[in-house]
Amino acid sequence: MTAADLDRILAIADIVHPAYPEERSVFEERLALYPAGCRVAERGGEAIGYGVMHPGRLGVPPPLDTPLGSLPADADCLYLHDIALLPESRGTGLGVAVLDYAHGLAAREGWRWLALTSTPGARSYWDRVGFAPYAEGGPALEAKLASYGGGMSYMTAPVQARE
Questions:
Q1: pLDDT tens, position by position, for the chain (163 residues)?
Q2: Which residue in 142, 154, 163 sits closest to 80, CA to CA?
Q3: How many helices, marked H, and strands, marked E, lie in the chain?
């Protein structure tokens, strides 16, 4: 992903996640802070999806539509901020490819966990690919999830080294 991709990324986000809008500055900052975690899925030279991930701390997801300021010095997981694929790209293997990339990146960085905040509609997908609800969150995590809207789930999966 480059800065030149951001208009298309925001257009995809508007289609895939209309109930969870984020400002351009959030994507700009994630790209500047951790470019290795910002990927574009393309078909025929056009972006049809993206993945944005960055170092994080288990049980401490960032607030929706909020800059990080910096990456946590004590990161212990790779946080999957957003994986979005246009409906017409689903079933093509791109979701698996992005997830494989995330596992590989986390393994190279030495993290043992992937973490994410799942929307209600995506929960069954994350269940199928090995994520489980995080049981150690407590009231602070519950309050943060409530700020996203109802039905959100904070989930984790052990990193699997992938080739």
A1: 999 999 999 999 999 988 888 999 999 999 999 999 999 998 888 899 999 999 999 999 998 889 999 999 999 999 999 999 999 887 888 888 889 999 999 999 999 999 999 999 889 999 999 999 998 878 888 888 888 888 899 999 999 976 5
A2: 154
A3: 5, 6
Cα–Cα distances (Å) from 81 to 61, 120, 147, in that order, read: 9, 15, 15
pTM exceeds 0.90: yes
Closest CA to 156 of 105, 51, 80, 93: 80
Q: Identify which of 150, 148, 136, 145 has the alpha carbon closest to the alpha carbon of residue 58.
A: 136
